[in-house]
Amino acid sequence: MTSAADLFALQEIDLKRDTHRALIADIESRLGETQELIAAREHLVTATSEVERLRRQQRDLEDATSDLDARIQPLEAKLYSGSVRNPKELSDLQKEVELLKARRGKLDDEELSLLDTLEAANGAFAEARADLERVEAEWQQDQEDLRAAKTRAEHESALLAGERGLRTQGMDAPSLGLYENLRRTKQGRGVARVERGSCQGCRLTLPTHLVQRLRSDYNLVQCPSCERILVAG
Predict the structure, then answer these.
(1) How far apart are CA 117 and CA 184, in angstroms?
(2) Within a 10 A sphere around the Cβ of 58, how many other Cβ atoms?
(3) Helix 87-168 vs helix 4-30: angle between axes, to the nearest 10 degrees?
(4) Strand, helix or coil at 195?
């Protein structure tokens, strides 16, 4: 015959197994890339794209400056060579040179401003890269710790499963079935202690005759309120 004490001992094993299963499920939910890692990687991609965009802009400005220099140099040479004697032609040539030099001056100002912006972007890129390296290192260590914790929990759960198998070998089917059904409907606790005349599952004060029966009767006694199997405290 299966006693309430036997079922209470079985419940202690099952509660430990529940704890390990919950731990394993929690670990599995935390394995894989974190939002922090994804955000750090995206931040670096954004910083890299910004640096590349500014460098393209810098090359465009340098090309535009070279093109202007290539146009200014022959015009200046012509202007100061003395080959042009017509006053209007000289005036027009001088104005064209001045206009091109003014445009070049604006490009120079843009390049100087761009250098400051590029310097800041390079700093942001270096910071984003360092942040990603830090986050990746922390994440990798955390993943190793989680996998180790999962292995330990799985090992403990397997030991408990073996212990449970041994404990249930001599139990009668009706008592074990009642216990299993109650566990499913009572948040894993199908057996409750009786302390100071009260069921510790629902806190109901039990009738005196029921407490006396619990002490003298080998049959399973259930709480009249929560229906849990009662075991003397």
Answers:
(1) 65
(2) 16
(3) 170
(4) strand
- Residue 204 has which token pair? 């109901």
> Could you tell me which of 60, 58, 39 has the C-alpha nearest to residue 50?
58
64 contacts: CB under 8 Å, gap ≥ 6: 107
**How far apart, in Å, are the Cα atoms of 74 and each of 62, 64, 71, 96, 100?**
19, 17, 6, 12, 12
What length is written for the chain? 233
CATH class of segment(s) 31-168: mainly alpha
Q: Residue 99 burial by CB count (10 A; 0-12/13-18/19+): exposed, middle or buried?
A: exposed
Q: Give CA–CA dist 231/233, Å, rounded.
A: 6
Find the range with the poorest average confidence among 81-90, 185-194, 207-216.
81-90
Structure tokens at 210: 């029921």
- Structure pTM? 0.73
Provide the strand spans (E) within the chain: 191-195, 198-199, 229-232
Structure tokens at 148: 């180790």
Structure tokens of 94?
Answer: 């001088």
Displacement of CA 55 from its chain's centroid (Å): 34
74-85 tens-digit pLDDT: 988 888 888 878
Q: How far apart are CA 101 and CA 113, in angstroms?
A: 18
Task: Please give the structure tokens belonging to residue 134.
Answer: 């830090």
Domain ranges of the chain: 31-168, 172-232
**Mean pLDDT for the chain overall:** 94
Residue 39 token pair:
């955000």
Residue 137's pLDDT is what?
Answer: 98
